[in-house]
Fold:
Amino acid sequence: MAPNVIMLGPPGAGKGTQAERFARARGIPRVSTGDILREAVHAGTDTGLRVKAVIDRGELVGDDVMIGIVRERLDRPDARRGFVLEGFPRTVAQATALDVIMAGGAPLIIVDIVVPESELVRRLSFRQICADCGATATPGTRAAPVTCTKCGGLLVQRADDTDAVVRERLGVYRRDTKPLVEYYRARPTFCSIDGAQAPDRVTADIASAVEAAVSRGARAVEGQTR
Structure:
């Protein structure tokens, strides 16, 4: 059975890239709440406009909105074979709600990608996204390509990747999201990955860690049913 994976980590840790790679390799959907919210912003809906204002300030979208979005997405047929969640949960309240949503299902595999803050600031100051499809360009230098490798759209800096907003987002992460690590750490399916390595090395480490976590989770479930 394909695993149900949560990718955790601060802004700039590479969650999106690694979630996409893992999902593609396993043939399961990558469920990115960021993508879902950006679609709403791009469509100019009332929800999208409210979300845009919150994101541009470097703040987090409310738990009730995020939980509803995730519940609806995980109820679709393609997610029943497994999924990779990226961007959710971001608070302990969201994690508690996810446990309720997943009650009776396969254990959640938690992957925490760890990167030093100085490296995060460097990456985010160079990060760009496609104005058309929303894809994130690999962090590099200001001389990087100006068009998206996926659709050819123009690459632009995210409104929430200015220096001031980056530091605000990292502060929000420390305050609201990092407690998730403590919430999940004691679970046998928790994995910590060094995200400061080359992306391919991180990908390989995640694959190995998830395989080991699946086995530990299966043993834990078996022990509970005896």
